[in-house]
Amino acid sequence: MTSQVKSGSRAAKPGNSVLGRLSAISFMTPASIFIGVFLFIPAVWTLYLGFTNYKLTGITAAHPKIVGFANFQKALHDPQFISSFKLTLLYVLFSAILGQAILGFLLAWVLSTVKPRIRSMVELIVICAWIVPGSIVTFLWVAFLNYDNGTLNRLTGQHIFWLLHDPFLSIVVFNTWRGTAFSMLLFSAAITSIPKSHLEVARVAGATKMQQLRQIVLPSARSFIFTNLLLITLWTFNDFGPFLLTGGGPGGKTELLPIFVYNKALKYLDFSYGSAIAAIMLLMNLVLALIVIRAGRKNK
Amino acid sequence: MAILKRQKTKMIQEKTAVEKGFTGLFLALCVAFFALPLVWLFIAPWDGQPNYSIKWPSWTLTNFAEISKNPYAYKSLVNSAIFSAGSGIAVILVGAPASYVLSRVKFKGRDSFLYTLLLFSSIVTGSAAMVPLYLLALRLNILDTYQGVILILTGGLIPTAIFILKDFTDSLPRSYEESAQIFGASSFRILKDIVAPIIRPGLAVIFVWSFVQAWGNFLVPFILIRDINKQPGAVMMYSFYSDGGQPVIRQVAAFSLLYAIPVMGMYFYVNKKYGFRFYGGIKG
Amino acid sequence: MSIVTTKKITKVFPGGVRALDELDLTINDGEFFALLGPSGCGKTTLLRTLGGLESPTSGEVWIDDKDVTWSPPGERNIAMVFQDYALYPHMSVKENIAYPLKVRKLPKDEQEKRVAMASKALSIETLLERRPGQISGGQQQRVAVARAMATTPNLYLFDEPLSNLDARLRLEARTFLKQLQTELGVTTIFVTHDQSEALAIADRMAVMDKGVVRQVGSPSEFFHRPANLFVAAFIGSTPMNLLEGQVLQGNVKVGSNTFTIPESYRGKLQEGQEVVYGIRPEYVSVVSSNADGVASGSVKVTENMGTHYLVSIDCGGTLVRGTVPDGQQPANGATLHFLPDLNKVLIYDKVSGNLI
Questions:
Q1: What is the per-residue pLDDT for B10?
Q2: CB contact A9 to C (< 8 Å)
Q3: Residue finishing a domain among C205, C228, C251
Q4: What contacts C89, CB < 8 A, 6 or more positions away?
Q5: Model ipTM over 0.85
Q6: pLDDT band at B128 (very low <50, low <70, confident <90, very high)
Q7: Which of C206, C228, C250 corresponds to the end of one domain?
Q8: pTM for the whole thing?
Q9: Residue A250 within a domain
């Protein structure tokens, strides 16, 4: 019955994988189309617009011209851009790395030592802050930081316009609050994946908590740490969240790059300049990602 | 022997009073930090005269009644559900097969390829590519449509979904598929009978993750949707303003709760059923 | 049931690793055949190629009189038991056993019958409703074998079937496998890195190294006449003494000691030839006097092997292992005289590594 199948079955290529070449390609096709159309094209388009003088209104709207690196040069001499750029780096450093990652790690580490009931309760609250939609979160923080009767002023007995007085600090704390859950979850997984015996050996040997952390937990969680840093760095760098809280103000004090791009392109309708900044951001993302990946490989 | 061992571990795990104190203090501070801003969400909607403060509510439903006077309010939640379910399904349908291939077929530069995708996605879901995305939607004639928002959200979510799903699939031993292959099962059969049921928790996690992301996304519908009939909750939140430009707190508070509950419920359901698991990390 | 033949089969992996190198092998009908070798020798690749999970770069695989080199695994009528058993965690034991039958579209009652038959043969009837995660490793192995058996294949392939079991279970399981294979009489090929396992249960076996077969034969041939130095060093629970020396006036000179060349080698060796003098510790016995052909040295280590002691003797820098009966073990540092059993001595050419 199956005697004559020999010819042609060569194409079926057993081995390699369960997937034949054909099904592998057909499985990849939809994703490739999505990525091509909705990621690659916009990214290239952004780059292209950055080299033009395209604006939504005025003469150049209909016939944009290639202006070379003019927009990029403009950016490098634009004090607003420079300060926005610095602000974004600080925002990543303080809210993502020092805020989310470290607080998330501490939470995961401490929660791994407490009773399951307490653990799931604390986790629930932290995760709530993470999954509540951004538009709501904005209002929650507007209420929390409100001048007249916001919770923070009430608790501390102060009268401070937090968003005017300490706008940058406010958004840093805000983003830490918002995103710590992800780091906590990832690090919890990392800590659970450490074999119990490793920690017990260290405890029997009389290692202090700090030594256990440095010598056992951190090395074992290495790949988790770098995955986490990579993702939260990228997410925070491109975070648009504070826009809803401060709109970039007051006086550009919270005008992170994504907000800067938004203001330039969609508020002042200077598409080409906004796109050039976006292209620079893409490049910066690449650099940041390379730094994290390199560090991850090196510290093995 | 067993008893001895148990005693030993117990002894080792014993914490000093100082440690206990620190642990308690740290957790109390964390709970305060994360819970305080959230309290308003659960209290204010029930108060007849809510302001930005947290106070014991008068337990009334008038705020919810007032929202229902706004013809677009509940509609926007339905719209959110359409965007989110659409994106969630599309992400699974498109992302799962691709992540399976990426997990099983080795090719040079596969990891760099995945990282590059992540980079692109973080840009495109941010504000940077909003101009081209707007222009793209214009050209594709999907401006002001459900499918336009769904397609663009899906495009932004797919790389991360593939990245995480690939990790799930990597943890599935190849021998499962190979043994089925030896029994004569076809590729499709293997995927349907073996692979899909085993990575179902991963698929559920990714579905909910995509759903939550789409549910909360403000920028994409804000830019692509003009028709108020199609606006999702995220954008609708900003329509509860008085003529003077001040938010109408009663409406905002009630709507926030309605808008928050579906995703929170969904998240905790899946978390309870499957657990939000993460594997792996940067390899190589 | 089936005769398996490979013809000049070569597998080169991307990256240039030659896992199989023009390998020829024939496995006879009904044989329990072991593929043995150090890790990375290509034994698993060979098994997977027979199963159709890998396609060879060149060469052919024949099962009986059919070239199956390019047939998909499902068309070869074989069953494979994997090292991790590959039991599907989301199916019950029963569903696991029935799954291949379902794939082959057997009628429901036939499926039931086969599940009952296989689970009875492996005494797992009481486990049918459980999930693989709820049963022990040994039970999982039985389920995997039952699943294979229910498909009534012409050829079984086992990939390290015992390596996931603990030591005591392993002994039990291997006896059981041997018995089952004898009863079924179906050609069975298994891969192992444990030579005692291969020696214990295989009818015939092949030792592989770097993608080539170094020797094929029965376990006793392997034990008594390893065909080359690689196999000689690899086989045996205590490694064979392999003493490098030179043929001088009818003897082999190893350092300061001379060892007698057995009668059977007369005329096969040339004066001055570089050879390796091989003798298993079991065949090195301690003698009292310093007679002809007797070597001596001082005792370095003695190890208790239960019924006897293994003694390592330092003969002028060369370590020779011998055995003494229980109760006669010498003290460390004592001078010992010993004599190899000439009937058991094997002499290898040092250059080619082959048995002379």
A1: 45
A2: yes
A3: C228
A4: B198, C131, C132, C133
A5: no
A6: low
A7: C228
A8: 0.80
A9: yes
